[in-house]
Amino acid sequence: MKYILLSRLQRINKYQLWLISVFLATALTESIVAMMDLLLKGEISVDYLLTGLVASLLVASLISAMIIVFLDQLSSLNDDNIQLSAIVTALPIPLALFDDKRHLQMLNPEFTKVFGYQLRDIPNLSEWQQRAFPDPAYREIINAEWQKRFENYDLEFQPLEIKIRCKNGLNKHVLATATLIGGAKHKMQLVLLYDISKRIEAMNALAESRSLLQSVIETIPMRVFWKDLQSRYLGCNSQFARDGGLTGAEDILGKVDQQMSWHDQAELYRADDRLVMQSNVPKLAYEEPQTTPDGREILLRTSKAPLRNSRGETIGVLGVYDDITELKKIENELWLTKTMVDKCKTAFFCLDPLGMVTYVNDYACQSLGYSRDELVGMTPLEFDPDFPASGWSSIWGRLRDCEILSHESRHRRKDGTIFPVELTCHYIAHNGLELSFTFAQNISERKRLDTELRIAATAFESQEGMMITDADAVILKVNKSFTEITGYSSEEAIGQKMNLLNSGIHDALFFAEMWQSIDSKGVWQGEIWNRRKNGNIFPEWLTISAVKGADDKITHYVGTMMDITARKAIEQHIHHLAHYDALTDLPNRTLLIDRLHQAIAQARREHNLLALLYLDLDKFKPVNDSFGHDVGDLLLKEVANRLEACVRRETDTVSRLGGDEFVILLGQLDRQTAAGLVAENILASLNVPFLIQQHTLDISSSVGIAVYPDDGLEANTLMKNADNAMYQAKCAGRGCFRFFRSVANG
């Protein structure tokens, strides 16, 4: 009721308030004066009424003035309360106000937002503490610390870091501070809680990151160190400190290399530091010496890189190294062992668990006629006709049982000739690596006397197709491989002539030369195309040897055949890879030069012209940079297709040299302008936008033209001059072609 009356009084202006006060005071005063005068004198006197009127006017004016002053102060106080309430509401810091009886008087919205508690959830400080600090021991510690800070009211309250359980069950780290407000008898406690959870999490993450980094530096199996711009050590791991004869990383701080055991190499190290810091380029995996605290000299493999701060400024050098002294010693020993193995006159082979050759010595290459690259990757089956393909697993099992295997076999040279060997096989295992090493001794001389006896015995143990004929080339016997290769059974082949397999591809001259070689040398071997029973023609490696009797006359012929269909396919594939570009399948530089030599020879004979068009794509690099190499490769393929569409004659060649460079050979030209027409056609074709993976790409090209014989009589000269002409086209603004013009000719 009183608040309603005050509110109404505040809405009345000062003049109205004065009139009301005068009216009320006059009416009340005149009534009292008239009543008193009537009671005392029995009449109402005018003098008394006038006196009461004056008194009432004075009193009413004084009272109204006092009321107006009170209302003004009350309005100002009300405005201050509204402003204070707005500040508390907008304050972005949780705030709580408790009275002297520890009852909660106020919470601001930020408190509810951060912790979830509302005013009804916190009837008093004690109950809230039970919810905010559910652990009794922790709650007791907090209460003790809180009370300690209020024991001396004259001192400033020291903030207290605490962990509060929110209403949703999560914990938050806060920094709490409190202030006592109010009079001496009724002191209220204002509590401010600063949420520092994110800062605590960041500090914990930083500490964990530093701990992890230090753990990595200490765990890494290499020596790690870092220096400042003056090559003073800023830190290292424990392994580096031990190398320097120090007990820990802290002992090296501030030192320089002249103070370490490797002071003799200090200037060398400092020069490397300066080079890395000045160039801002790492120096990686280089070897350098170092003197140990006990005076020994060891060999290090070191890498150094610029040490940069968060702003990218070079503030020193970071280095790592490893002691490779023992490794170098082992390398030298291995080199010596390898040299001895290579120089010995016994063939040496290393085989992995799958029976594949991993290493051979020089003599093995000499004896078989293969290069080392050719032999590595082969299996014994490919050069040992007696090797059982299915028997390797049992052989390997016996070797793993530490059994040394020794037996005789045969090896076949690259040219197809076969010679006897004695094999001794051993097994070794080291660090999980298993190998068989075999020594092969050529025993041709020892076996020379029993060659005739071994013909039949070895022929049918071989994995190659074998046939034996009489002196008239009539088949007497064939082996199983012959049947598998040709499709003819033993019954079907015996009694037939050797030409049973004739494919019709080779002419009479070929067979005449073959039999002449057999008659004169006693043997012939080479590639031949034969026909299977089903009519399929296949390539084989055929060896025909003549067997002579005691009177030196031929009594039999022994034919050894090997189906080389797969090998021929591989050879053709390798030949294609060697002469054609892997990306566009266009002829590469090797095939282009070969065809250019042939075209020059033909042009010289026929007095014709030929032209080389050297083409380079303009704006190709931005395509790779913007869309990636996959799009660039697809663009190159499409360029190749368009170039081939522009050049259709069989005498012409479109080739790719690499990158975005293409060369086109135009042969049998009757005039020089024909090359220009082709160049114009190419430029027009390549100017049409390309659509690659939904990207529309616009490129152009620059073409240089060199013409034989005016611009060169040799292939290299024509290539060089066409290249120069292409650069002249680029200098002319790109997207055009230029015929070669020498500097002398302007």
UniProtKB/TrEMBL annotation:
Q: Which CDD domains match?
A: GGDEF (cd01949), PAS (cd00130)
Indicate the segments forming the PAS domain, all copies.
338-377, 451-496
- Does the record bear Membrane in its keywords? yes
Query: Which chain positions lie within coiled-coil regions?
Result: none
Q: Which UniProt keywords apply?
A: Membrane, Transmembrane, Transmembrane helix
Q: Which residues cross the membrane?
A: 15-36, 48-70, 82-98
GGDEF domain residues are: 608-742
The family database entries (Gene3D superfamilies) matched by this protein are listed as: 3.30.70.270, PAS domain
Q: Where is the PAC domain?
A: 284-336, 524-576
Q: Reply yes or no: does the keyword Cell membrane apply.
A: no
SMART domains documented for this protein:
GGDEF, PAC, PAS
PANTHER family of this UniProt entry?
DIGUANYLATE CYCLASE DGCT-RELATED, SLL0267 PROTEIN
Q: What name does UniProt use for this protein?
A: PAS domain S-box protein
| Lineage summary | Bacteria, Pseudomonadati, Pseudomonadota, Gammaproteobacteria, Methylococcales
